[in-house]
Request: fold
Amino acid sequence: MDNFGDRLSAAIEEKKSVAVIGIDPTLDRLPPALQEMVDDPVNKQDALEIFGKGIIDAVKDIVPAVKPNIAFFEAHGIAGLMAYITVCAHAHSNGLIVVGDVKRGDIGSTAAAYAAGLMRAPAKAGKLANPFQIGPHDCVTLNPYLGYDSIGPFIDEAQENGQGMYILVKTSNPSSEELQDLKLENGQTVAQSTARLVNIWGKAMKGKSGLSSVGAVVGATHPEELAMYRELMPDTPFLIPGYGAQGGTAEGIKGAYRKDGTGVLVNASRSVIFAWQKENSPQDWQGAARRAAEVMNQDLNSARP
Amino acid sequence: MDNFGDRLSAAIEEKKSVAVIGIDPTLDRLPPALQEMVDDPVNKQDALEIFGKGIIDAVKDIVPAVKPNIAFFEAHGIAGLMAYITVCAHAHSNGLIVVGDVKRGDIGSTAAAYAAGLMRAPAKAGKLANPFQIGPHDCVTLNPYLGYDSIGPFIDEAQENGQGMYILVKTSNPSSEELQDLKLENGQTVAQSTARLVNIWGKAMKGKSGLSSVGAVVGATHPEELAMYRELMPDTPFLIPGYGAQGGTAEGIKGAYRKDGTGVLVNASRSVIFAWQKENSPQDWQGAARRAAEVMNQDLNSARP
Reply:
């Protein structure tokens, strides 16, 4: 299978979009017709699947990727996780890149177990995941606190299957400063150190596009830092949260792109999937999501190099 | 419900043991009779449940806690996760403290979703988890890279339900040095900075025993550092991996205890649950696990202040 970095670049060019839509279904923001279903677990699973698949159908021809966050499904136990699998599979079978936002981080044989469960089945089968694995994922998000021991097993799986990963470097939330902004004796911050590690870990996974399959999460809420992170990680795909709801702007993201305009996916979740609330169009929640994604595309493309 | 730190101390005194047994069922190390079952998903679920429950039954009267690592269950998808719930519930109903080794780390509403799914159901119900949530857990492991935004929602849940958490501070694996040992300009390491944060976050959650419900993971493979971490986190329960298989010793752990001998749980996984391999007693895998746990108890108690 093709290298993930190459697949990512091709999907972005095909859709003319750097947007990834986060599928984070908090129940109390689902459209009213679906909210009515959530009282029993079986209907709750249906509601999560209808919503997730509905968002995917609404945006599948105008964005390259979706990012279901497993937390919002795991919150509903086994029924929720079955919905997660259905939603990932629906995105996958519609040709979207599936970013599994799982933020895993463990070591050795444990990391290998995570990697096998989250990464192996879909690509090996070349089609939908078997229902006894979690996914299918084209890539997952990972936490770097435990170092390479927690990343290596994912790189091994990813290399075999043409998959990738995004490692947390500098996140978009206020308290990211508590650890990530700590100043080291060499003048760097912890996040800059993580960026250097991510850059090294990804060197062996570059595709024809020059882009690595080992990516980084860098928040849009730190626009002044994005060019610096791009310099530290010249060939790393960036996954950029914090656009829209959290205050990041298309202009602010400019520094994150590689010179040729590649290397960036910008995430929006609530501002797109719950756009029906802002529009006050509960019957047309899919149309509202599509319109929000279109506005996002226009906005991001206007500031893309 | 009682404070988690108090419950932990009471359980340790009752069992006269500071051991927590990690339930990490890698399939190729299951006893042969169970290995034969793993080819189809339904039987695989049975095999994981029989093994997990069998280990719990073998050690439940001689240790205060077990720590199932969800990675080894998630690796088998929905069937595996159903086994995880069964194993946690079995431990819970046998009065053991269940440490859910899930190493979660996400922010805001996402962290709240994780906390709801992993922490809410069991304690609120006061009995077995409902099968549509993940757990029951008395506490979970968390990753600090995102700062308090990723911890606060768990503290909120835990406070309401008498639960707790263990936050990764200094892990037992070799590459923990890549981030955790970075030297800051103030002379501390990143892990020491994390320790200070954990100490602050836990101040509001102290019970009658003086022990907080916000704990720390500190590896046994760094014996020279344990007393230093105890000084930084005087009232924090430590969860100590790396004993046995990874080279940590009872003597090396001495510095981790509070002066009164409390505040420590020492984990062993493979050396106990797969003790049948070392004994070459595949028919008596439960007896082998019990004997290994007894030896561990003797060893740890001999060096406990």
Summary: Chain B has one domain: 4-300.
